[in-house]
Amino acid sequence: MSSTSMTAARDVGNELESQKYELLKIIQDTQRGLVTTADQRSIIEEAMVVVESFDAGKEIDLNKLDGTWRLQYTSASDVVILFESAARLPFFQVGQIFQKFECKSGSRGGLVRNVIKWSVPRLLEENEGATLIVSARFSCVSARNIYLKFEEIGLQNINISEDLQAVIAPAILPRSFLSLQILQFIRSFKAQVAVTSPERRSVGGLYYLSYLDNNMLLGRAVGGGVFVFTRAQALTF
């Protein structure tokens, strides 16, 4: 590559990083999409389109997609309603939301888990009290579109608050075998509910990955709603 080409590529890279930073700056005060006006949503849409233009037409790189992504912003009504419920209801909190892709098998698809951290104040630990996981299989149906086939909804990683632990096993008394068993059962509890069955048609939908690099993922749900994710540390279950 000539020095002129290298300079041009560096300039493009710098401009891209600048536009990504601008997008993140615009969304930082929206509480992940809960607090926005029509004008703000329009500005965010314009900023997303600018970033997406740097990646237009490229095929999905599953090696880049693989991993954990933290939600920074969305306009999808089924997610925003969670934030609205947490804002209205004093007994419900929504913590971090992630998408975890597993797609290094070499095939044109893989597994994606939508991970929602939530809590009930005084009963569970703040923001990290429990984990809801919605699992889906996905397949690439075009250069940028993936088709999601939802399979299972699960609840796990229940972390009860110190107040509730004190009720189950008072600190002033020796913990009995029964109270220890109760605490261990709660901590290790897992529940899974299948979304599909032989009698029921599977639930699915198209998801357009409009931009992808090593640290940012932009998506658009076909039928409404945009998503802005940034790379996060790996999640374990």
UniProtKB/TrEMBL annotation:
Presence of the UniProt keyword Lipoprotein in the record: no
For this UniProt entry, what is the primary localization, expressed as one broad class? plastid
Name under which the protein is recorded? Probable plastid-lipid-associated protein 10, chloroplastic isoform X1
The record's subcellular location field reads: Plastid
Protein's gene? LOC104227545
Q: Which residues form the signal peptide?
A: none
Provide the Gene Ontology terms for cellular component. plastid
UniProt keyword Plastid present: yes
User: Which Pfam family, any one, appears in the UniProt record?
Assistant: PAP_fibrillin
| Entry keywords, A to Z | Plastid, Transit peptide
Superkingdom is: Eukaryota
Domain Plastid lipid-associated protein/fibrillin conserved as annotated: residue spans: 19-229
